[in-house]
Structures are given as C-alpha cells and as structure tokens.
Amino acid sequence: MSNDALLSVRGVAKHYGAHIGCSDVSFDLFPGEVMGIVGESGSGKSTLLNCMAGHLAPDAGEVVFDTRTDGPRDTLQMSEPERRMLSRTDWAFVHQHARDGLRMGVSAGGNVGERLMAVGARNYADIRSTAIDWLDRVEINESRIDDRPTTFSGGMQQRLQIARNLVTGPRLVFMDEPTGGLDVSVQARLLDMIRSLVRDMGLSAIIVTHDLAVVRLLADRLMVMKSGHVVEAGLTDQVLDDPQHAYTQLLVSSILQV
User: In this model, does residue 107 exceed pLDDT 90?
Assistant: First the structure.
C-alpha cells in the first residue's frame, strides 16, 4: 500500500453467477479524506462498500487498513474477532435505514453506550455522560436520552445512528446512502452535521450515494461506477464540472435537467 494511505483497496471483485457485483476495483484513501462513490441502482457501489467493510466476502482482492497496533493489515485475512473489534473501534458503518444500525428496543442513550461498553467502558456515570454529550453533538435533546428510537423521526434516528457509530472515535466511516429516504430539508441539516463532524474529527470516509449533490458537498474525490466497473475517478469538482466518460456526462446532465 502507499506509505501514508489509511486504506488501500486492490483488485476487489464480487460476482453473483454471471452478474458482476464489482470488478477489479483499486484505490487508496488517505487520512482525513472523503471518497464518494456514485452510480445508478445496480451499478455495484453498495456491493463494493459491503466488500470493503467486511459485510460481504469478495471473490478476489485486498482491503489493507493501516491499523494502530500492527500497521497495514489485509482486513479480509483477519480473524472474525479481529474484524469485529476493528468494526467497533477504528471503523464505523452508517446504514441507509437507521433501523439497520440501531437497536430499536434500546433507549437512545443505551444505543450510544452499548458501543462504548463493547470496547471496555464500564463506569455507568461516564457512559451516560458521554452519551449525553454525543446526543448534543448530533442535535438530539438530552431529555430524549431514555426514549427509544421508535419514538424518533427518521432524521433523528439517522443522527442517533451516527452518534452510536462515532462515539468510539473511529478513523474510517463507511456510509451507505446516509440521506436516502429523508425529506430534502432533513437531508440538508443532516449533511451539514456530517460535514462538520468529519472535519472536526479528522475522519476518513467512504460515502456511497446516487445523489451528486451529496458528494459535491462532502467528498474530496469521486469514483463513478457502472455495471460493477469504475468508469471515471478524480477530484469531485473536476469530475462533476468536466465529466469525461459518457456515463458520467449522462448522470450530471440528468441532474441539471431536473
């Protein structure tokens, strides 16, 4: 991997019979950098994200992460306990549907506290204090700490999922359509919050979305996927303002015509 890359993806491929999920994808992600992955439904972007995050086993490739203790490790070769600990500490995954990333029967504070307990926190007062702090950071009133996510709006649930994910101070966050299914006004507020947290925490992030406005706001670099292949990649503004590939041109023009 590149000496200073946080994550190096090499030749990742996933096939479903004759169907290509993703094919021979390679890139480096650097500390504090946000990579956007865009494409229409079925382009392979979520398959790629899930392969990188360890939710899907790719057919080929490496996903090398610069770990705090052992330096660069191919996460695909890690043991299950190692990968699970990585996903609780240095990695986080924000699902499109907050219910997939929350325990809906547990209080808001409990959802945040659970992740702290998973990495060894045991002092109840400290856990609750940290949970209150994080609810405040994602604009959820402290008075809702004992309420269950089922009583929250969709936007609040998504903000709670983000708090649950970021409370352990991860260095890399995977986001799968983080604003999908939310009202436009709610999306704008959530995007602004994500941008602030990424900047303030110095996070690296990989964001999958079909919404070019999301990557325009959040991503430093951009990969465009079609039929499982990366067809164009580069600096976000460069790709969106001067798309070279016919498919990227189509994506950009379709947005402009809306």
Answer: yes
Q: How far is CA 174 from CA 15, 33, 41, 63, 102, in A?
A: 21, 12, 18, 13, 15
Q: How many whole angstroms from its chain centre is CA 56? A: 15
- What is the average pLDDT value for the chain, to the nearest integer? 94
Q: How buried is residue 172: exposed, middle or buried, by Cβ count under 10 Å (0-12/13-18/19+)?
A: buried
Distance, CA of 93 to CA of 100 (rounded, Å): 10
Q: Which residues contact 204 (CB under 8 A, 6 or more apart)?
A: 6, 7, 29, 30, 31, 32, 33, 34, 171, 172, 173
Closest CA to 203 of 38, 29, 63, 3: 29
Reported as a single tens digit per residue, the pLDDT across 8-65 is 999 999 999 989 999 999 999 999 999 999 999 889 999 999 999 999 999 999 999 9
C-alpha–C-alpha distance, residues 19 and 168, integer Å: 38
Listed by start position, the domains of the chain span 104-169
Rounded to the nearest 10°, the torsion over CA 128, 100, 90, 182 is -90
Statement: residue 1 has pLDDT above 80: no
- pTM (predicted TM-score): 0.94
Number of H helices, E strands in the chain: 9, 10
